[in-house]
Design brief:
heterodimer; A: mainly alpha; 0% strand; B: 452 residues; alpha/beta; eleven-stranded mixed beta sheet; two-stranded antiparallel ribbon; globular
């Protein structure tokens, strides 16, 4: 698996600001923990070779 | 026998024989709701006057020989994320505008066309984003949750408050509460039932499906809401002799609550005794299933509620507010990678499912949790969130669009039902229901209702 840099509270503050997502200071720490947990999960997809694959979801009743 | 204990099929038969009228059924439902809903709070709104009007109309039509099918005159419950004309879709949130819907959701239209009586709306986990439905209690043990997000619909069926219900399922939201409440819940192939007029959570994972107290009722109801009345009922009694049932070697039996595992083992043995051949299968891309599902669900849900999470975050409960914020921070490249991974995984599963007619697995990793619990201890002692325990075995069928059902397979302490999940090939919904019915026939849990 390729390594991703762990998400920090500071990173989350910047990310949230960049997408105009207001997050009260008191909730940033908890958010950073949850974002890091999800990003660790998502990193499992980094192993797959997806270079020639179209994304699913575009057509109605297609096989997703 | 009290009318509330009948199956929809039995009630329908009695209507046609003249032994009971749709008005009597609605009155029975209203009385049962009055008797039980203080304890379980399954309904968010009951349409008493309209339901009686619809029942009188059904009575007239049937008397005149106009038969709309198996749900004609049957009172049904609607998960409160589907629009019903003239009523507000609340979805157990303060984040949505309180404006009455102008038209029915497509599934409600299909139910009305089929003559069903719309009895009312049922509580959900907020915005269908969660798996406990905090407003509602489990009819089998009121200290426990009914599961979610279609928790109100499952609880209403288990309490005998209605004869049929509709729910939605993005990561187990029909199957998990059905398992926890001891009813049958079916998530059809992706897009088999229209999502029009349904509050989206994650549009590429959302599925609309039927819930009932028997496989027969669910199959008949699926026919009604897809406009193909007999398609899913016709082959229901064909049994499993000669069918190949896949039992996964990996993923689906990892970290399962031991008593639940025992019930599933007994159910698999019952299918073998009924003539099915059991075949061990290796689940492809097991490590990527949940990452892809969660990435897509979190990102899409945050897009659906993008304005609300920015402008009025405090109108969401703590859990949903957190998940919506997490999803808002997922990079677009990761979301698209998850959608690409989905295609790779789906291709591998399609090849794998040519080896068997269906997979048989648990619906959830653990039985219903106590009200307020956020995690449970896995058999190895590690903590797992309730969200993960109730969705990790259901989510793959959402990711891949495959039909899947939860059918009751017994109880674990302290008196909590658990469900067997059957997952089929894409568009092979009828096979999933056929296997579920074959299993149901070997057991005594069909039509079970909680005591009050």
């Amino acid at each position: 698996m390729r390594k991703r840099t762990p998400i920090t509270v500071e990173t989350v503050k910047i990310l949230a600001k960049s997408v105009a997502l207001p997050v009260p200071l008191a909730e940033v720490d908890a958010l950073a923990i949850e974002v890091e947990k999800l990003f660790v999960e998502i990193a499992n997809l980094d192993d797959l070779d997806l270079t020639v694959v179209e994304p699913a979801f575009l057509a109605k009743r297609e096989n997703p | 026998m009290s009318l509330h204990t009948l199956s929809a099929a039995e009630a329908s038969k009695k209507i046609r024989s003249g032994a009971v009228s749709p008005v009597e059924l609605v009155q029975t439902a209203l009385a049962r709701i009055a008797q039980t809903d203080d304890e379980i709070n399954a309904f968010s709104e009951v349409f008493e006057a309209e339901a009686l009007d619809q029942a009188r109309q059904a009575e007239r039509e049937l008397r005149e020989g106009f038969d709309r099918g198996p749900l004609h005159g049957i009172p049904v419950a609607i998960k409160d994320i589907f629009d019903v004309a003239g009523y507000i879709t609340v979805a157990d949130t303060e984040a949505l505008p309180r404006v009455a819907s102008e038209r029915d959701a497509a599934v409600v239209t299909m139910l009305r066309t089929g003559g069903a009586v719309i009895l009312g709306k049922t509580h959900v986990h907020e915005c269908a984003y969660g798996c406990t439905t905090p407003s509602t209690r489990n009819p089998w043990n009121r200290n426990f949750v009914p599961g979610g997000s279609s928790g109100g619909s499952a609880a209403a069926l288990a309490a005998g408050q209605c004869w049929f219900a509709v729910g939605s399922d993005t990561g187990g939201s029909i199957r998990a509460p059905s398992s926890h409440c001891g009813v049958v819940g079916f998530k059809p192939t992706y897009d088999l039932v229209s999502r029009s007029g349904c509050l989206p959570l994650s549009w590429s994972l959302d599925h609309v499906g039927p819930m009932g107290r028997s496989v027969g009722d669910v199959a008949a109801g699926l026919g009604v809401i897809t406009g193909n009345v007999s398609r899913y009922s016709d082959g229901l009694e064909l049994g499993v002799a000669g069918l190949k049932i896949g039992i996964p070697k990996n993923y689906y039996f990892d970290d399962i609550e031991p008593n639940l595992r025992q019930r599933i083992g007994e159910a698999i043995e019952a299918l073998r005794a009924a003539g099915a051949t059991l075949i061990e299968v290796e689940i492809p891309y097991a490590r990527q299933l949940l990452p892809a599902h969660f990435c897509i669900m979190f990102a899409e849900a945050s897009t659906v509620h993008r304005d609300a999470i920015r402008e009025q975050p405090d109108s969401f409960g703590d859990d949903v507010r957190m998940w919506l914020r997490v999803g808002a921070l997922i990079p677009a490249a990761d979301y698209l990678s998850a959608q690409r991974a989905r295609r790779v995984i789906a291709d591998a599963w399609r090849r794998k499912l040519t080896e068997v007619d269906a997979l048989v697995v648990p619906a959830v990793a653990a039985p219903a949790s106590r009200v307020g619990e956020m995690s449970w201890a896995k058999p190895d002692g590690a903590e797992e969130s309730i969200l993960s325990a109730f969705s990790r075995l259901a989510a793959p069928a959402n990711l891949l669009g495959l039909p899947a059902v939860s059918v009751p397979c017994g109880f674990v302490d302290p008196g909590l039902p658990v469900g067997l999940q059957i997952i089929g090939r894409l568009n092979d919904d009828a096979m999933v229901l056929r296997i579920a019915r074959a299993y149901e026939r070997t057991q005594s849990w069909e039509g079970q209702i909680a005591d009050f």
